[in-house]
Specification:
- By secondary structure, the chain is an alpha/beta fold.
- It has one domain (about 10-185): Purple Acid Phosphatase, chain A, domain 2 (4-Layer Sandwich), CATH 3.60.21.
- Helix content is about 20%, strand content about 20%.
- The chain contains 5 helices and 10 strands.
- The chain has helices at about 20-25, 30-45, 90, 155-170, 180-185; strands spanning about 10, 50-55, 75-80, 100, 100-105, 110-115, 125-130, 140, 140-145, 155.
- The protein has a 5-stranded mixed sheet with strand order 4-3-2-1-10. Strands 5-6-7-9-8 form a 5-stranded mixed sheet, with helices on one face.
């Protein structure tokens, strides 16, 4: 997919619509309805009706949650996450413009590899992922676009490129503390 409108193309992951496991997700909601309503409001306050959204998986945890696409602004493309993989493409295409497992995105003369899982990243491209919720936001060659890291909102491709530029040009070794020898050893 080639992106030309970086201000009106959004990327996001891990909404977990219709999920009630807030203790596992570390989301501060008292019930599913409040959670889902808040996520819908955050989405629609960010994304316009004529926007494009690329969702990197785990849109919903069950069949019912996919119905929420009718309340969301934009044209939504799904890259399957572990929960979405439970359903075949025919089912998912009732709710999304396209369904894939991964995608290479070309923007500003660079290629980005998009998929749900950080463990499936590519060495020769910058990786854009979800799956890990708020565990981390950036790595040396990867950005987590899950809503838990972005105030429960999709981000624009422009925001994504800004973050990638910061990682490449301005973050020092201390940002990537997981690479330090003292953090590689398990006790």
């Amino acid at each position: 997919m080639k992106i030309t409108d970086i201000d009106n193309t959004y990327i996001t992951a891990d909404h977990h619509f219709n999920d009630t496991r807030f203790n596992v997700l570390y989301r501060d909601f008292s019930n599913r309805a409040l959670h889902d309503d808040y996520l819908i409001r955050q989405w629609n306050n960010t994304v316009s009706k004529n926007s494009t959204v690329i969702h990197l998986g785990d849109f919903s945890v069950n069949e019912y949650g996919y119905r929420y696409t009718q309340y969301l602004n934009g044209t939504i493309h799904l890259l399957k996450g572990n929960y979405d993989e439970l359903y075949d493409d025919d089912f998912l295409l009732k709710y999304f413009t396209s369904v894939q497992t991964d995608m290479v995105m070309k923007v500003d003369n660079q290629q980005l590899y998009l998929n749900h899982y950080p463990t499936k990243g590519k060495l020769d491209m910058f990786n854009v992922v979800g799956h890990i919720h708020s565990l981390w936001k950036v790595q040396r060659n990867m950005v987590n676009v899950g809503i838990d890291c972005w105030d429960y909102k999709p981000i624009t491709i422009k925001q994504l490129l800004f973050t990638i530029n910061a990682i490449r040009k301005y973050y020092d070794t201390n940002v990537f503390a997981g690479e330090l020898e003292c953090n590689k050893k398990t006790i």
